[in-house]
Amino acid sequence: MRHEKIAAFPSAPAPRPEKRPQEDTRHGITRIDEYAWLRAENWQEVLKDPAQLAPDIRAHLEAENAYHKQLMAGTEALQEALFAEMKGRIKEDDSSVPMKDGPYAYGSAWREGGEYPRFFRTPREGGAEEVLLDGDREAEGKSYFHIGGVDHSPDHTRLVWGADEKGSEFYTLRVRDIASGRDLADQVENTGGSGVFNADGSGFFYTLLDENHRPSKLFFHPLGAAEEDRLIYEEPDPGFFMSVSGSRLNDWILICSHNHETSEYRILPADDSHAEPRLVAARETGLQYDLEPAGEEFFILTNADGAKDFKIMTAPAADPSRENWREVVAHEPGRLILSILAFKDHLVRLERKDGLPRIVVRERAGGAEHVIAFEEEAYSLGLAGALEYDTDTFRFTYSSMTTPTQEFDYDMRTRRRTLLKTQEVPSGHTPQDYVTRRLMAPAPDGELVPISLVHRRGLKLDGSAPCLLYGYGAYGITIPAAFRTNCLSLVDRGFVYAIAHVRGGKDKGYRWYEEGKREKKPNTFTDFIACARHLVAEGYTSHDRLVAEGGSAGGMLMGAIANMAPQDFRAIVAGVPFVDVLNTMLDDTLPLTPPEWPEWGNPIASNEDFEVIAAYSPYDNVRPQPYPAILALAGLTDPRVTYWEPAKWVARLRDHNTGDNPIMLKINLDAGHAGASGRFSRLEEVAFSYAFMLKAVGMAA
After folding, report:
1. Mind giving me the DSSP string for 624-692?
2. Is 121 inside a domain boundary?
3. Quick one: pLDDT band at residue 1, thresholds 50, 70, 90?
4. Contact status, residue 481 vs residue 378, Cβ threshold 8 Å
5. CA distances (Å), origin 396, targets 99, 126, 196, 369, 376
């Protein structure tokens, strides 16, 4: 079908950036990129200081923002109404249930009207709050502010906390003295965002980002010392990230090097920052493992020995090398073990079986197991864990697309769950007014793709309802069928809100992920199109009422379906879209490119990978055809999907669009990958996107 022009959008001349063709020849194939100049030569400087952006590039981006404002003129009242609705569903003075650790219980809270959380503690059994860090106060006068990790020292006297003030994800670490409420002179810039104290709290470990935004070095910072920070370990492979973590017993520091398919750990005693990190199991391409310290032993979650959906091993803490691994929970095909938590007497695992998550509790002595059961057709679970090791209680969260998030403490010995908190929706929410369903869409190759959806009870399934179909499908990330208050602003206006659980995620096990990466990446796109067509066939919507949305790697999905099946969608919203896939994967100087090769392929080294990516890369496959209305969202200081990808894509789309539907770019010149940093300013961006969707389907009045 051909979409009619969307008359709701006014006519206005779109920005037309100058074409400055640049040639690039790889594997004997020459490509011309007329908009390559939109990539700032000094992009690394721009990440840290947006004022360094070249004037001609800034002028174009500002023109794009002026253009989208013209096209969205008249929706201001709608945006304000959407914002008010979404804000009204947020309990403004919300607070977490504090989690016990030693003499205190630690939590976070928001003040009414506040944009950022404050972190606090109370005496273990309750009492007056002691504010440790006030996010609103720290953010005063800053156009962007985001708090990274916040960790208290083992002796409960200090905090190490990180903050990003540009949106570029270069975090500065500071140390706060809790008694005085003041930060010490200790300060470290360009870090990964969090620090881990050593056993006595005399210093902390942190990762330093290199010029390509890769955490590549681990340092120890001794508090107040005149000596320089000590390099503990450097990861030499540009294709690997590095992270550092501690243990609940404060006995180990864990150093993990990893990419998207391989991991490697080194450990050192938390009470000896001078110790040489000890390798656990050397990296082997495709071997993944995670360590969970458990007193005298480590539990190891791994896919070793062909355990595609993972198994659990154990090894003595004195020597956890590979030859000492012994099986505890065997591999079961189709049951994907997602994560584990070890306590003194129990081992807890979160797994997915038959497409649904579940929590299993295992007694360490004897191995008896039980499952925590739930009743809804589709739901989401999360392990909040515990701060302590010697405990019978851990915390988990539960929600569904109709049920607000519930937080429980669970006693592993008595099997009693205690409801601590139910997410409040101040403006009101009645779960019985909504219906949640799980459908299975047939893909072209016969696979059945799950769809989770929610709509108002009583909605006519005659194809007249508008629908928002969301998708991601990369890195093995599963989009849960969880409660989302924002989408109710669409659902209450008659929308169906649906999630396509396409290949590339782990929704149906690890195989589901493998079937949506590298040479099999096109399955992600055809799965999404199949879900769209299934929703239409089942009467949930029609193609001229269907809106698609995805962000980051899900934005790549949006770019691909725009090229492959533009007639199936009325509009597309692509958030920080990874659309210039081939050029980015061909440039190993860009942030994160080498670590991405296991996910997408290495088109520099492999002609086959080049051809696979070239065949679907959204920017390279734009062609003359009528496109649906498209809104691309970007952030100037985004180190993950650089701003020029959506800027180039939008420009090329306009060149080839033979229809009349608008194609626009909204770029936040003060933020990065995650958009605006405050909880309410972020809602303004969602309100803008929703207003675009409503306008596209003729419901903006």
Report:
1. SBPPPEEEEEEETT-SSS-THHHHHHHHHHHHHB-S---EEEEEETT-BTTB-SSHHHHHHHHHHHHHH
2. no
3. very low
4. yes
5. 12, 21, 24, 17, 17
Is residue 212 predicted with pLDDT exceeding 90? no
Whether residue 31 has pLDDT greater than 60: yes
User: Does residue 135 sit within a domain?
Assistant: no
Q: 258: which 2 tokens?
A: 């990893």
Q: What is the pTM of this model?
A: 0.89
Q: What is the domain extent for residue 559?
A: 22-87+428-696
Q: Which pLDDT tens digit goes with each residue over 389-444? A: 999 999 999 999 999 999 999 999 999 999 999 999 999 999 999 999 999 999 99
Contact partners, residue 40, CB within 8 Å, separation at least 6: 46, 52, 53, 54, 57, 644
In terms of domains, do 449 and 559 share one?
A: yes
Rounded Cα distance, 240 and 207, in Å: 13
- Are β-strands 434-442 and 448-456 bridged in parallel, bridged antiparallel, or unpaired? antiparallel
- For 226-254, give the DSSP string: SSPPEEEEE---TT-EEEEE--TTS-EEE
In a domain? residue 362? yes
2 pLDDT above the threshold of 50: no
* CA dihedral of 445, 447, 450, 455, whole degrees rounded to 10: 50
CA distance linking residue 238 with residue 645, whole number of Å = 22
Contacts of 459 (CB under 8 A, 6+ apart): 435, 465, 494, 496
- Beta-carbon count within 10 A of 344 CB: 14
520 shares its domain with 629: yes
Segment 234-282, tens digit of pLDDT: 999 988 999 999 999 999 999 999 998 999 999 999 999 999 999 999 9
By annotation, the residues acting in catalysis are 552, 638, 673
The mean pLDDT of 37-42, rounded to a whole number, is: 95
Q: What is the pLDDT of residues 456-479, one digit of tens each?
A: 999 999 999 999 999 999 999 999
Quote the tokens at residue 361.
């509790």
Other residues' Cβ atoms within 10 Å of the Cβ of residue 537: 11
616's enclosing H/E stretch is: helix 607-616
CB proximity list for 290: less than 8 A, separation 6 or greater? 256, 263, 300, 301, 302, 339, 340
Whole-angstrom Cα distance, residue 281 to residue 290?
Answer: 11
Share of the chain above pLDDT 90, in %: 86
DSSP 196-213: EE-TTSSEEEEEEE-TTS
Same domain, yes or no, for 314 and 336?
yes
**Which CA distances in Å does 436 have to 265, 443, 452?**
41, 22, 7
How far is 409 from 489, CA to CA, in rounded Å?
Answer: 31
pLDDT surpassing 70 at residue 178: yes
Residue 167: predicted pLDDT: 81
Number of domains in the chain: 3
Q: How many angstroms separate the CA atoms of 491 and 486, rounded?
A: 9
Residue 1 lies in a domain: no
Evaluate whether 564 touches 579 at the Cβ level (below 8 Å).
Answer: no
pLDDT reported for residue 559: 98
Q: Could you read off the pLDDT of 106-120 as tens digits, one per residue?
A: 999 999 889 899 999
CB distance 392 to 345 below 8 Å: yes
pLDDT tens digits for range 658-685: 999 999 999 998 755 555 566 788 899 9
Can you state the angle between helices 76-88 and 679-696, rounded to 10 degrees?
130
User: Do 410 and 437 belong together in one domain?
Assistant: no
Rounded Cα gap, residues 687 and 487, in angstroms: 10
The length of the chain is 701
406: number of Cβ within 10 Å:
17
The residue type found at 200 is D
